Amino acid sequence: MSLAPLLGSREPGDDGGGGGQERRPSWRGGAAGGLCASWLGRVVDTEEAWAQLQFAVPMILTSMAYYGIPLVSVMFSGQLGDVQLAGATLGNSWATVTGYALATGLSGALETLCGQAYGARLHRMLGLYLQSSLLLSAAVSALISVLWMFTEPLLLLLRQDPEVAREAAAFIRPQVPGLFAFAFLQCLLRYLQTQSVVVPLVVCSVAPFALHVVLSHLMVNVLGFGLAGAPAAISVTFWVACLMLLAYILRSEAFRETWPGFSAEAFMYVLPTARLAVPSAVMVCLEIWAFELLVLVAGLLPNSTVSTSLIAMCTSTEAIGYMTTYGFSAAVSTRVSNEVGAGNVDKAKNAVLVTMKLAVLLCIAFVLLLAFGHDVWASLFSRSAVIVSAFGGITPLMIVSIVFETMQSVLSGVSRGCGWQHLAALTNLVAYYFVAMPLALLFAFKLKFYAKGLWVGLICGLACQTFSLLVITARTKWSKIAEAMQEKKASYVA
């Protein structure tokens, strides 16, 4: 593994402004190939785009695999009966909202800290930041574990069905050990991501996912553990994935400079890490909570069965779209943090521009699939002709929301790379809870647009979020960020 702070390989001294010679990929195919390469070169920086694609695709596969692990357990729980399915679904949502989303958000601090330290070649700092993040994640996971022990009374307080609440609590409790593993796993993932090490992430996510399918079947259907077996399989799988990544880091010679071994010095960096981790967690949680809240509000609409199913289908579709763009969000976060740390301002700006162009192309492909295949997609969720037809009616709104979701996902990656988590968190708070939710309630209940009204309100919030992040990015003083990083580097060296 190269310790160069770049995703793509470029000649030393190339600052993106013509100061060095870039190594472009070889495009073959004679005159037609040359014409194609020339056209592509005018549209997008092909070297940067290719480097980001090599980074983004493995990250997409990794996020899909981790997303699928609890989903598989919910599916196996559904084989036990309707009540178990309802309990597992509710429990999975509760675990995501109160635990997994928070753990994911906390690890976002490493995208800034490790990414910029790697770009500045402060290699030893990566290991110290990782350890401080692991300590913080362990402490927060312990607090969440206490909350999870009171899942049933809390759900009853939220007026959930007593039987379903009891099954949800049964689905949550065996996941407590897995929560610690998931939190540690996210930290290790960010540590490797910021060094552009992505192939091992795919191996350590896809292989555990395959194991999880077998393990879930074994524990639920063969050994007869019932509902408790499905979440227990989640815990085992997350620990397997975590230990695989940890073993790779400890045994690989490639990390001898960025992993100095366990050190008490890491305690000194817990508070600096927390200053970025807390707003990062808030940023992630505010968005996820908003989508979950829409599903709950849909249950208050007339014909709530159809409305709830429809909004749940929409949020699931949006989640899949988000995971697809997450690869590019991670790519731009890494590229920006690495280049800012290295003082390469022009390359950082170029990385943002290229990622936005790639995101637009991805968005177009996703939108076309949804526009022409919405009936087929909806039929995977429900056999009800009414629900399938209703999903077709809301598809144009889904297309608009996916466009904004794609853009804001990439811009959020820029925020993490620059260390603007506090600005992004504030933007999410205003966009979702002062714009989206009030308008969603107005359109759905007062103007009687019902489910479509809820989604129109969400679109307004997404638009506000996207344009706010776009303005912040456009007005960025990149040179000042780079100068601050160089001062930090100088103080560390001194």
UniProtKB/TrEMBL annotation:
Keywords: Membrane, Transmembrane, Transmembrane helix. Coiled coil: none annotated. It is a multi-pass membrane protein. It is found in: Membrane. It comes from the Eukaryota. The keyword tRNA-binding does not apply. GO terms for molecular function: antiporter activity; transmembrane transporter activity; xenobiotic transmembrane transporter activity. The chain crosses the membrane at residues 49-69, 128-150, 170-189, 196-215, 227-250, 276-298, 310-332, 352-372, 384-404, 425-447, 453-472. PANTHER family: MULTIDRUG RESISTANCE PROTEIN. This is Protein DETOXIFICATION.
